Amino acid sequence: MPNWEELERRCLACQRCALADTRTNVVFGKGPRDARVMFIGEGPGENEDLQGEPFVGRGGQLLDEMLSLVGLSRERNFYITNIVKCRPPKNRDPLNTEQDACIGYLEEQMELIRPRVVVCLGRIAAMRIIKPNYRITREHGQWVEKDGVFYTAIYHPAALLRDPTKKPETFADLRSIRAKIRELCPEVYG
Ligand code: URA
Q1: 121-133, pLDDT tens digit by residue?
Q2: Contact of 42 with 82, CB cutoff 8 Å
Q3: Closest to 38 (Cα-Cα) out of 55, 26, 24, 51
Q4: For ligand 1, what atom is nearest to the CA of residue 156?
Q5: Which residues are CB-neighbours of 148 under 8 A, at least 6 positions away?
Q6: Spatial CA neighbour of 166 closest among 186, 137, 133
Q7: What atom in ligand 1 is closest to the CA of residue 53?
Q8: pLDDT tens readout for residues 135-164
Q9: How far apart (Å, rounded) are the C-alpha atoms in residues 96 and 139?
Q10: What's the pLDDT tens digit per position in 96-120?
Q11: In what order do the strands lie in the sheet with 79-82?
């Protein structure tokens, strides 16, 4: 069984793929380490690389605003991290080889947190976590249960910034996430 301090130390020193050569900071994750709810993005962007925290750019601000409307905050009740912990140059999609090198850290984080609800942010995370042929346009907001954990995906915040007409669907998905949390782990809302 991993422990947080040892896991974070290993992750911050990681040299398993070439992203280590170009990163400023490893972006390990943020939020309570006993959260029942996890959000998973694809990989750090420029601001995240500079600050060492996930989702701190414009997309992250939008995400925090939207999640606060359904009572969720990274300070209080969810943990947020990414599939890859280092920024892919020019924000390209992380390569499969980079995801393969990094996914063990996420698996260990999930083993420690043991979330009841997991929300993938965008297609890349959903393809890795839910199923390889995940279609975000068709399947966002749908729930998949595996071993008592409920998984869903919503549009990536960057996609909402590019195309705000997707926001109403995302709000519907967030209401469904709130309902699922109330059903499975009402203590999240105290
Ligand atoms: N996009 C992501 O997928 N993750 C981040 O942390 C920031 C932007």
Answers
A1: 999 999 999 999 9
A2: yes
A3: 55
A4: 3
A5: 116
A6: 137
A7: 6
A8: 999 999 999 999 999 999 999 999 999 999
A9: 22
A10: 999 999 999 999 999 999 999 999 9
A11: 79-82, 37-41, 117-121, 149-154, 144-146
How many angstroms separate the CA atoms of 44 and 7, rounded? Answer: 19
Where do we find the tokens 């060492």?
A: 52
* Distance between Cα 189 and ligand 1 center (Å): 25
Mean pLDDT of 5-15: 98
Mean pLDDT of the chain: 97
How close is the Cα of 147 to the center of ligand 1, in Å?
Answer: 27
Classify residue 7 as exposed, middle or buried by CB count within 10 Å of its CB (0-12, 13-18, 19+).
middle
Ligand 1 and 49: CB distance under 6 A: no
Instruction: Give the C-alpha separation, 81 to 177, whole Å.
Output: 18
The string of DSSP codes covering 58-104 is HHHHHHHHHHHHTT--TTTT-EEEESSSSPPGGGPPPPHHHHHHHHH
pLDDT at 105: 98
Mean pLDDT to the nearest integer, 5-16? 98
115 lines ligand 1 (CB under 6 A): no
- For 180, the token pair is 């699922």
Distance CA 72, CA 69 (A): 7
pTM to 2 decimal places: 0.98
